[in-house]
Amino acid sequence: MAAIELTDVHKSFGPIKAVNGLDLEVPVGICLGLLGPNGAGKSTTMRLLTAQAIPDAGSLRVLGHELPRDSKVARARMGVVPQLDNLDVDVTVEDNLRVFARLYRVDDVGAAVDRALERARLTERRGAAVDELSGGMRRRLLLARGLVHDPELILLDEPTVGLDPQIRAEVWSLVDALRAEGKTILMSTHYIEEAERLADEVALMAEGRIVARGTPADLVRKHAGRETAELYGPPERLAEARAAAEADGLTVRPAGPAIAIIGSERSSNGEVPEGAVRRPASLEDVFVLLTGEELE
Amino acid sequence: MRRLEPAAIGGVMSREVANFRTFWKSSAFSSTVEPVIYLLAFGLGLGATLVDRVGGIDYVEFVGTGMVATAVIFSSALPAMFGTFVKHRFQHTYDAILAAPVSVEELVTAEMLWIGIRAGIFGAFPLVVTMLFGLEPRWGMLLVPLFGTITALGFAGFGIAVAASVPKIDQFSYVTTLVITPLFLLAGTFFPIDQLPEWAQVAAQLNPLHQLVVLVRDASIYGFEATDWLRLGSLIAFALVMWRIAINRMRACLID
Fold first, then answer.
1. How far, in Å, CA of A140 to CA of A121, rounded?
2. Each residue of B194-213: pLDDT tens digit?
3. How far apart, in whole angstroms, are the C-alpha atoms of residue A15 and residue A167?
4. Which neighbouring-strand residues pair with A60?
5. Which ipTM value was assigned to this complex?
6. Burial zone of B32 (CB within 10 Å; 0-12 exposed, 13-18 middle, 19+ buried)
7. Does A72 touch chain B (CB under 8 A)?
8. Chain B neighbours among A 94-113 (CB < 8 Å)?
């Protein structure tokens, strides 16, 4: 049985189709990265999974429970780490965890809080008010709060959005530890590096549906080939190189001030434009190729 | 799982208690000092100069017992409005709670219970203060926190429903000016309702705060009458109706 099974799920907000025929299966024990740009429908998907959004159509099952009908039972078995910091800032670290241990009906609240503090490396700060913590500590506490009941399934909604690199690395190490424990994780992100670094499999999401799925390496091999040639230069030079590559049947995308010729190893003469730099094809190439969207 | 689980309601209330521990002093200060100021201004000021006795009792006792209703509405409707709005829109607290196994119904019930109990206790403070001004203690006064809590439950539901219905926090000023202030003035706290025009007397009967004021005065001074059961019943009905409205409004606001 899969931990999450979404079949042909639709959710609109007025004229906007946030989720549009989403099929998604997350097997037990993997970390699936839901990668997509802002507005792709990732956060709506997360809200559908906690029944904070009700689908217009389609079927949702989480840990065998049908949503939204049995969502409370499902929520008791999963932990959610939100994108926004919604900790209670005036109360202590320990009180934040105690409240959620109670909300999750944990039998031994004290032991659960101790475990969560240890996991987040916050035992020394248990008596501190949250607004006295650093940004990294607060993010670790947010993770600990979502894990205080030792859930089977963990939803991480953009776990490192807006964080500086050092804090991001701290969060990644905590997520790594969860993966090592064999937890099932669904992690939405719009950071390619995060998806590549943490996810066993990546599902690329755009316009409310999954457009490709696989391991990062498989996705790159299947959709972008082996290498990409990046060319910098004046606009006329880039336009000329682009036209030539496209005439050769290759896909070209803008890459900041440069252009990226994807699958450049397949050019008819085996060469790349003069001055172009060859690099291994990346997940970003795949995403832009499949969706036309630029990613961070 | 049951529809209203005590564990879920208790969990949400435990969050409120944990937060209240950080600001109880300022909250208790305003709830106790404000009625004293009102008592001094109206009870002693007005009582000593213009009005000596009303309804067969000293004016200070008349105002002091009526102030229970004022304390109840100001420590229930306003915290419910502002607290709910802030937790929903600014702190995103409810998103966190609803990601746990808690329903909107349980969340609203817990919030109403917490505000109701707290306001019921705060509502008794003016009675204690009035005793310092000569009000004789009576056994019936022990029921005042209960009456206050039941009334506060209704106003907490009202405040939550308002918070879930307005797009901006500054729109609360319409509600306080057009709803809360008239209810507060037409409760019979500062002057007897039976002196007013007939339409105002009818309106006052529909005002839960007026029912509370009568119950408090009967409990504290005059003694209970059979019609007090009706008054209590109307307050319970008010609380139940507001509970359902608050749940519906919050569901519309929290669940996409």
1. 8
2. 888 889 889 889 999 999 99
3. 38
4. A6, A67
5. 0.86
6. middle
7. yes
8. 95, 98-100, 102-105
* Six-digit token string for B200: 């105002």
Query: What angle (nearest 5°) sits at the alpha carbon of residue B107, between those of residues B106 and B113?
Result: 85
Task: Give the model's pLDDT for residue B53.
Answer: 80
C-alpha span between A212 and A207 (Å, rounded): 12
At B170, which amino acid appears? D
The DSSP line for chain A is: --SEEEEEEEEEETTEEEEEEEEEEE-TT-EEEEE--TTSSHHHHHHHHTTSS--SEEEEEETTEEETTTHHHHHHTEEEE-SS----SSSBHHHHHHHHHHHTT-S-HHHHHHHHHHHTT-GGGTTSBGGGS-HHHHHHHHHHHHTTT--SEEEEESTTTT--HHHHHHHHHHHHHHHHTT-EEEEEES-HHHHHHH-SEEEEEETTEEEEEE-HHHHHHHHH-SEEEEE-S-HHHHHHHHHHHHHTT-EEEEETTEEEEETGGGSTTS---TT-EEEE--HHHHHHHHH-----
pTM, two decimal places? 0.89
Closest to A168 in 3D by CA, of A176, A150, A44: A176
CA distance B244 to chain A (A): 19
Q: Is B55 left (phi over 0), alpha (psi -120 to 50) or beta?
A: left
Mutate to test the interface with B, among A77, A80, A102, A150 (most CBs of B within 10 A): A102
The lowest-confidence range among A161-175, B131-145, B230-244 is: A161-175
d(CA A209, CA B101): 27
Contact check, Cβ <8 Å, A103/B11: yes
Q: Which of A52, A73, A90 has its CB closest to that of B19?
A: A90
Region class of A293: left (phi > 0), else alpha (psi between -120 and 50), else beta: beta
Q: What is the pLDDT of residues B21-59, one digit of tens each?
A: 998 888 888 877 887 788 888 777 776 677 778 778 888
pLDDT band, residue A294 (cuts 50/70/90): low
Q: What is the DSSP letter of B224?
A: -
Residue A88 has its nearest CB partner, among B15, B99, B100, at B15
Cα(B162)–Cα(B249) distance, integer angstroms: 8
| Collapsed DSSP state (helix, strand, coil) of residue B92 | coil
* A249-290 pLDDT per residue, tens: 888 888 888 888 888 888 877 787 888 888 888 888 888 888
Domains of chain A, with CATH numbers? Answer: 4-219 (3.40.50.300), 226-280 (3.30.70)
